[in-house]
Amino acid sequence: MKKRAWLCLLAVTVMLAGCNDKANDKTEEESTSSHQIEEEPQGEKDPNGEIELPGKLSDFAFAMDGEAYSLPMSVEALNSMGWIYDGDDTKSMDSESFLEGSTIKRGKVTLTADIVNLEGETLPIASCQMGGITLDLRENKDMQVTLPGGIVMGKSSLNDVLEAYGEAADQYEEKDTIFLTYEYGIYKKADLLFDAQEEILYKIEMKNFRSPSSEKGAGQVSREPPKEVMGYTRPEGLQEDISAFALEYGGFYYRIPAPVAEFLKNGWSLLEEGSDKSVEAGKHGYVALEKDGQRLYGVVTNYSDVPVIIENSFVTSVHGDFEVTKVPIKVYKGITLGMDEENVKALLDGVEYVTKEEDGVLNYYYYADEEQLDYLKISIDQSLGLVREIEVNNNPDVLPQNEGEQEDGEDSADATAMYTPEEPPREDNVPASTLPDDSNEKGESE
């Protein structure tokens, strides 16, 4: 993007009536100072000037009209600052659910907010938290907002933001707006919108539906791998039963759900900004992994009865496509990215599935449960007739190796032992192939 010079840096050629020739010889610097004084009268102070904000956008902190905010933020705290939820705040919200597009008001200012219940029990809205906010100068022109790194809405340019926060995960222009998206994991991102002509920030949309407690240090949780992790056995190949949820991902075999530690062993690294530090017993959390420049944002579950560090939770969703998360992925009977639709249908012969068409994409769904929460999705680009995206999401209540009673103190049989591997066993889980994430959370929305 080209930089624009402020018009006030040009020499002023038209002076006030009654000024003499000497006044007409003012320097460019004096003219600039005069212009600034005209726009910002001396004595006017930035209401956010005394507020110290962290230096990273990923902290989801901001200052607005002289007050500090941070996402998520309790509805009770908002009420104490004069904000009122526009609706019935006694209405109940299910555990770990969210309500997008809500409204909060204070005086003449109305803002769009997202309300989240981050607790493990049903709560009234009044006891929940604000996890998302939209700040728009075109709707509230007198609003004064400052982000970490000294970014000021209505003043900071596109280049200022890029210098402060680095390259965005996505940048594009549509009609009269330039969009920047900074992603830090599932339900954890910031969209910054700029006027396409002036390239000045005018709108901010932030979401952080993540519990602060999950991002604290793991000093009070077990660092030892629980029996659920120790009992995980990777498949030696793709399985003959589609319900096994076995796949090849990034050149290694997994059965989903699979421990985060298994991904780390296979060359992925943990991205702290997008990952929870720990996961409570029986609860879900979020992880961000990176390998060879590709990122996998996944939902994780702790299947043990004690809190664990994120490494000892289980990844329940993986994703691969040709556009965003370009990770080689191969599923049931070798279905992979780029395969033609006729071959996909042939390989799915005998499998009960449903199809759903959306925006030129035909999605093949295999559902493992009646609630349709656990599934394999194969997306076909209708214009090309080829697989463009594959998603695996499996979060059972009980891990397969722990289902049912175990007799005589023996471990239950690994599900993979019942099936014939597609390929000969390998040692040390070496890469199986090199083919050509963003994940789907099984959350609830009211």
TrEMBL record:
Question: Where does the UniProt annotation place the signal sequence?
Answer: 1-23
Locations of Acidic residues compositional bias? Answer: 404-413
Question: According to the UniProt entry, which residue ranges have a biased composition of type Basic and acidic residues?
Answer: 36-48
Return the annotated region ranges for Disordered.
23-50, 211-231, 395-446
Alphabetized UniProt keyword annotations: Signal
Q: Does the keyword Signal apply?
A: yes
Record-given protein name: Uncharacterized protein
